Amino acid sequence: MTQVARPSPRRLDAFELPxxxxxxxxxxxxxxxxxxxxxxxxxxxxxxxxxxxxxTMNAIEHGNGNRAEIPVEVEVTQNGDEIVVAISDxxxxxxxxxxxxEEPDLLKKLDGGQSPRGWGLxxxxxxxxxxxxxxxGQRHTIWLTMRTGxxxxxxxx
Length: 157
Known about the structure:
This protein is α+β, with helices and mostly antiparallel strands.
């Protein structure tokens, strides 16, 4: 039986941003430029950019506490038909993206039963094909995966 070798992940870009509010717009623009032309439809590209902006905003605000001297790190790789964006902060265990985050409930939010905030992970999860979170010491990383082929545009909200 012949096995098809899967190509090694290829780094497309890596950069750092100061942890200052508003820099999420720089991250979404740069990631958008990096992955332009790699096979994402316009709507899937916009979803990826939205997820990148939200994850970067969380890293800036909650992970690094808006401390400009602590950068948010962004790396974009391609592995076959998958584009993976890794966004890292130094928030460690206290980061704003715990795996057990409560699912937002619009009615509870309107009635005051939940904070009006807290839509970030829900939004991210529904914009990309896969979302993973890892913590290694103080380094906290959210991994966003978007497939370039095989996923229908209507698959995610």
